[in-house]
Amino acid sequence: MLEVLFIGLSLGSILLLVALGLAITYGAMGVINMAHGEMVMIGAYVTVLSGIWLGANIFVAIPLAFIVTALLGLLIERVVVRKLYGRLLDTLLATWGVAILIQQAVRLEFGLSFLGIHIQGLGPGLQNVSVPAMLQGTFAIGSQDINRYRTFIILVTALLALATWFIVYRTSIGTQVRAIIRNPKMAAACGIDVTRINALTFAFGSGLAGVAGVMMSGFKTVFPDMGTSMVVDGFLVVVMGGVGSLLGSVLSAGILGEINGFVAAATNDILARAVVFGVVILIIVLKPKGLFALKGR
Amino acid sequence: MGISRRSLMKNAAALGAFAGAGLPNLWIKNAGMAQAAAGTVNVGVLFSLTGGLSIIEKSLHDATMMAISEINAAGGVKGMKINAIAEDGASDPKTYNEKASKLVIQDRVPTVFGSYTSASRKAVLPVFEKRNNLYFYPTYYEGFECSKNVVYTGAVPNQQLSNFIPWIIKTLGKKKFFIVGSNYIYPREMAKVSKILIEKNGGEWIADEYLELGHSEWGSMVNKIKGSGCDVVLSNVVGDSVVAFYREYKNQGLTHDKLPICATVTSEIEIAAMGPEYAVGSFTSFPYFQAIDTDRNKAFVERYRAFVKDPKAVTHHALESSYFQVFLWKQAVEKAAEITPTAIREAVKGQEFDAPNGHVKIDPDNLHTYLTPRIAQWLPDGQGKIIDAYKEPVVPLPYVAYGETESNLFCTAKGLDTAKLKI
């Protein structure tokens, strides 16, 4: 029973890890960022590459991946997303295109493979990240064996969620972000530099995805397509939680994770997946704005 | 839009089928003659060079091309050079079908080498059956197929399991099986055969569970394995799910010395992708491993690495079949009176070849291949140590899950005997 609870918690934390960045870009900025999964993928590749070329372990990769993906996010915001605010469907298409570009860039080793140059750790193949021994296997609490890596993921997710909460609700930049969520024009009229805050928010959301990628690389395969399926799960969480609500995302990730864990334990994984989708549909039908709706944009 | 390429192809296919139905031999024979006159023989090579499956299919493509270039370097076939027309299946069955039609109808090749997944093979099958052309399929698959237009050079379930299950029960002394797989036809058919063999050998299976294809969240499943009381796990998991499965297995504290994973799909490629430390001590059953300790195989691995210009490239079962099937085809062409799909098919029956894995032979009845089952235990360097092997190649039985035996074949040169097949 305790084990099932723990697995549910772990599933929820993985969902939240991906959804956290989306909750910010989609919730705060009204951008459907289809390239979010690719940010996760880039984070995973940063882990692979820093392991191969710098000999760095997964702990070093976390800040590194955050910086790389945040800068990439900033670039995408400056070049593409900035011109599309307020055009929800256009952001979807444009970022989908960006996603394909990023995937192919990794697959073609940034074009170098055309010249016959190969960089170890890039290309279309499967990559793997070696996990430090202290994160492998289990540790015991009483008579329970607890999975170390999953505990690590839960801790990192909790820390990231707390940090995000702190930035959004306890700093002056966060106050400006929340003002923009409510009404960007009014926020601008009050003297908030909306374009600058938007760019920073997008970069921060992308950076969170990068950290998610580091965590994923430890127990999944790293390959160019890995982000595509994750972005769907991320949107499920955000939409169910209520767009723009951090608490909503945290709760809906937890709920979906536990439902998945319990149904999978009682029946099987395939049915569990169907039940999760069913629950999301039901909630969207009953509460179209999600569990915790904010009035805004 | 006007006439799109696809609708043009469809019309061409329909027209071709019409013409083919009326005078099949004439049409195809002329194609063969035309190729012979030019001093080259065209063949199709159809694997996914893009998309999710390209990781593995690219290596099958490379092995096929390597065999063709070796044959050409040694003087070709019947004094003619083989000209490979390569197409990209793009990891998409529909694209596979279109490209197969293009190769058969437009390029008029007498044979195509291709496919990794059963889905892509099923997608091209109608093209080859309607046009009476010939397809060489190199991958291990679930059986349950009896087409006279396909030559199957990978293992069928009895060639991966008939030694594996008795060995697990008798040598490892494990009796309670937890069967786990990806949710599609191959793992489900493998499970069916496994259950027959487990019960025949005095073991029992206590669960038969599946995870969605391509999914990699194994938390619940591994927890279930832990609590099930099984003493061995039989894995038919495929693709990148394999990696996440072995990692989660270790992370939940399970070890291969107490509760080994015995797998039918985990090859050198998956081991390299997960990091060998997660698989050390687990077992896999295949007719070919890179570690086969013969001069012929070592030379093959060296040649392959030189061909793809990667000193660390790994070889695996489907790759090796992709390679040797071209040589079987070459021998058949040399024996055949004319270069037509029908003549090549008749000539390939009973062809034998010394492949890197050992002696192989095409069964004259079902066009599948005699292969030697082997069991390997994975070592820390990512290679398998071969700890059990059949003395000689085993007869391929594509319908073994439905009661087919060597003395009671379901699939013969006359086609499938449906009266024997009880589902």
Could you explain how this protein is built, in words?
The complex is a heterodimer of chains A (297) and B (423). Chain A has 297 residues and is an all-alpha fold. Chain A has one domain: ABC transporter involved in vitamin B12 uptake, BtuC. Chain A contains eleven helices and two strands, in the order H-H-H-H-E-E-H-H-H-H-H-H-H. Chain A is globular and about 60 Å long. Chain A starts with a helix and ends in an 11-residue tail after the last helix. Chain B has two domains: 5-155 and 305-372, 3-Layer(aba) Sandwich (Rossmann fold), CATH 3.40.50.2300; 158-286, Rossmann fold, CATH 3.40.50. Chain B is built from 14 helices and 17 strands. Chain B has helices at residues 5-22, 24-37, 54-73, 93-106, 118-130, 157-161, 164-172, 185-200, 219-227, 241-251, 268-274, 295-308, 317-335, 341-348, and strands at 40-47, 81-88, 112-114, 135-137, 150-152, 176-182, 204-211, 232-236, 261-263, 283-286, 352-355, 358-362, 369-370, 374-378, 384-389, 411-412, 415-416. Chain B has a seven-stranded mixed beta sheet with strand order 7-6-8-9-10-14-15. Chain B has a five-stranded parallel beta sheet with strand order 2-1-3-4-5, with helices on both faces. Chain B has a three-stranded antiparallel beta sheet with strand order 11-12-13, with helices on one face. In chain B, strand 12 and strand 13 (369-370) form a beta hairpin. In chain B, helix 10 packs across helix 11 (268-274). Chain B starts with a helix and ends in a 7-residue tail after the last strand. The interface between A and B is large, with 38 and 34 residues.
